[in-house]
Write a sequence for this structure.
């Protein structure tokens, strides 16, 4: 009997290699691996995984109310994530996004605080508050950029430091000058309803906020993909020294990327005040900055990819709140799933790069 | 029911959770469902009103908000669902004579226990036990409710110190606010640290005003080091069980006592909006079916102090009103003139600590 022993293993190996080196299939594998790992985690907790996924799905898209809540939470996340694409493209890690969102919320609430009771109309005050919030976020990001450029402080440490300062300022304000009279409860009083972004009747979703998010991602896409500025920013991110040698003012571009990112963070913060919570309170940034970093990482500089990924992350987060009600599980399980997803996608990215390099080596050899 | 903390916090949330279980056991064909950790630290992106929507989707016919922290959610949800009965524990939107009355929330009712009596007992137990004459009060955030409860504890302590223990030296009573009902790392003061500071600075009894058990846990730790210190817990009748010997007792709520008739009236179709502020059943303050507020003694309370505390409780049952002038606010302005007694509104909307108390009346 004559056989061809080497043929089958080679074809199987070749298929695996193809799957691992193809970007799309490697992401699918990463998602499947993270689902499998989540399945194991849930099983260890003694709960039926199918039930968990069913509750999460139902909680995120199972009703009109769930969908409007999903979109309402998606707005600040997609704004944060898309803003981060500016700094990611410039090769920078804007960990300070959390503080920038908080500063946006502070500036927005501050504008309303000082303008309420004046003859200015509600819509005008909302517009002023929105721009104030964007200014606050941009200012806070600019400071991180200045430290990076002129103080030689790594933006990760600078950003973390400014997050702590923003936290402190926020706590000082809500427990101090902006606290409701005689009360210290970590929250200001609610702003008057004339200063709320209009919400869809019977829901917590503001179409204005949703519109702002969509316009925001469009702007990011156009700037990064369709302008010289975007191209140069990418060059700075790829190789700052070479870009400088080619005449690109790298420091200025880095600063601009921080400012642009801060504008988006500030917008997210102001929408938290005018479109959702209607107060200024601790934890108002909602960890959107940190989750946005994960989304930005997974999006790999692609603005359009930010949309579905941030939607999935929001769905995980919103869907998980039902776990506590129905299964007595901690809703932080969604954070575990998000983390596993990021780890496996990055892992598969590493595998893909390694195998791709290997393939090139063989072909050139 | 929406619980601000975890259902098993051994404090406020557990007490309200057990109130829900009580109703479920007492009224046939009722089912109790709940969401816990409904607070901005645990769930920053989901508001109380949104959690209430989730319970509604799961078939809830009545929504109970268990915290003052949810006041915005109560208002928002009640307006959005005028056909759904809403009960706010510790709230006052339904109080016609109150400062925060909201006439348009026709479906909303409030329930609160007259915990001022419980806190007076707590203060008394502390005063009858302290050897240093220094009592600490581990306060949560600062608002009308927390000020009136701290004031009540002080009044009970002062009365028992002077009239039952017959001490002539002044009693020291210090309030330290942590900034929230429970610990939020990085946001509030750490209640463990605050309790430790009290115990190491001569305050040998700490009355807890927060929803969790740090005061008694730390007292237990200090007792293990040979120091004679104690805590008085709050909210939940079994809260002392974490360290019975370090605990003098706990003033607690039986929420089911007020919840049951209200839920029954909703089922019967006779529900009308109410503001309920209900005190102890003086015939038996620890009767789970009749007494909204009780005081459960613990092993740390000596037999002598226990007897004297009973004497004080009898005096309260007999009509002793400690909210009687002359009495000044902390800043020296007159609260009650000679012989004047406080109105319910004056007590509920307490603007300051009282003269003789240490600590902040308002946030600085």
């Amino acid at each position: 009997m004559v056989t061809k022993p080497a043929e089958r293993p080679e074809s199987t190996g070749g298929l695996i290699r193809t799957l691992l080196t193809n970007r799309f299939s490697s992401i699918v594998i990463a998602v499947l691996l993270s689902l499998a790992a989540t399945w194991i985690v849930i099983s260890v907790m003694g709960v039926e995984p199918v039930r968990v996924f069913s509750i999460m799905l139902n909680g995120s898209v199972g009703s009109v109310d769930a969908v409007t809540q999903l979109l309402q939470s998606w707005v600040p996340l997609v704004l944060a994530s898309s803003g981060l694409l500016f700094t990611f493209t410039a090769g920078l890690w804007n960990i300070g996004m959390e503080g920038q969102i908080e500063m946006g919320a502070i500036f927005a609430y501050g504008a309303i605080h000082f303008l309420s009771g004046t003859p200015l109309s509600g819509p005008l005050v909302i517009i002023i508050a929105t721009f104030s919030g964007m200014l606050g976020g941009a200012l806070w990001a600019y400071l991180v950029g200045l430290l990076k450029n002129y103080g030689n402080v790594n933006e990760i440490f600078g950003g973390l430091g400014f997050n702590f300062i923003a936290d402190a300022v926020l706590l000082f304000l809500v427990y101090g000058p902006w606290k409701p009279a005689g009360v210290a409860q970590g929250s200001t009083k609610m702003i008057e309803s004339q200063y709320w972004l209009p919400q869809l009747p019977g829901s917590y979703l503001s179409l204005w906020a949703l519109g702002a998010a969509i316009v925001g991602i469009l702007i990011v896409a156009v700037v990064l993909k369709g302008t010289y500025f975007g191209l140069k920013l990418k060059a700075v991110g790829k190789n700052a020294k070479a870009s400088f040698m080619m005449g690109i003012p790298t420091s200025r571009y880095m600063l601009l990327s921080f400012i642009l990112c801060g504008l988006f963070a500030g917008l997210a913060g102001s929408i938290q005040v005018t479109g959702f919570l209607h107060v200024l309170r601790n934890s108002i940034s909602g960890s959107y900055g940190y989750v946005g970093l994960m989304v930005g990482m997974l999006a790999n500089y692609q603005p359009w990819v930010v949309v579905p990924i941030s939607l999935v992350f929001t769905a995980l987060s919103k869907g998980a709140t039902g776990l506590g009600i129905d299964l007595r599980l901690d809703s932080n399980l969604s954070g575990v799933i998000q983390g596993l997803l990021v780890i496996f996608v990055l892992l598969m990215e590493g595998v893909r790069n390694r195998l791709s390099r290997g393939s090139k080596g063989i072909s050139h050899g | 029911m929406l619980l601000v903390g975890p259902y098993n916090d051994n404090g406020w949330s557990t007490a309200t959770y057990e109130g829900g279980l009580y109703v479920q056991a007492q009224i046939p064909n009722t089912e109790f469902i709940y969401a816990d950790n409904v607070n901005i630290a645990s769930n920053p992106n989901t508001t109380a009103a949104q959690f209430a929507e989730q319970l509604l989707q799961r078939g809830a016919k009545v929504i109970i908000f268990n915290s003052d922290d949810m006041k915005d959610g109560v208002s928002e949800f009640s307006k959005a669902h005028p056909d759904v009965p809403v009960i706010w524990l510790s709230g006052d939107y339904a109080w016609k004579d109150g400062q925060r009355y909201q006439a348009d929330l026709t479906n909303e009712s409030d329930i609160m226990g007259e915990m001022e009596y419980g806190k007076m007992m707590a203060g008394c137990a502390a005063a009858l036990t302290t050897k240093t004459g220094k009592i600490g009060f581990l306060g949560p955030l600062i608002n009308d409710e927390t000020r009136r409860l701290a004031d009540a504890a002080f009044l009970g302590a002062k009365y028992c110190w002077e009239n039952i223990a017959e001490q002539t030296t002044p009693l020291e009573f210090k309030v330290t606010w942590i900034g929230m009902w429970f610990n939020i790392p990085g946001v509030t003061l750490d209640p463990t640290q605050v309790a430790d500071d009290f115990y190491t600075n001569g305050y040998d009894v700490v009355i807890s005003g927060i929803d969790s058990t740090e005061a008694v846990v730390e007292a237990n730790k200090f007792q293990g080091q040979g120091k004679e210190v104690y805590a008085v817990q709050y909210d939940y009748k079994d809260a002392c069980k974490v360290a019975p010997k370090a605990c003098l007792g706990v003033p607690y709520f039986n929420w089911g006592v007020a919840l049951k008739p209200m839920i029954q009236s909703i089922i019967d179709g006779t529900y009308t909006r109410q503001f309920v502020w209900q005190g102890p059943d003086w015939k038996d303050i620890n009767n789970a079916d009749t007494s909204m507020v009780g005081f459960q003694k613990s092993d740390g309370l000596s037999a002598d102090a226990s007897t004297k505390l009973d004497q004080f409780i009898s005096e309260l049952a007999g009509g002793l009103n400690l909210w009687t002038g002359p009495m000044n606010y902390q800043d020296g302005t007159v609260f009650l003139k000679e012989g004047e007694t406080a109105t319910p509104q004056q007590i509920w909307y307490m603007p300051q600590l009282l003269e003789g108390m240490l600590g902040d009346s308002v946030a600085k």
Remarks:
- Residues 224 and 230 of chain A are 4 Å apart (CA to CA).
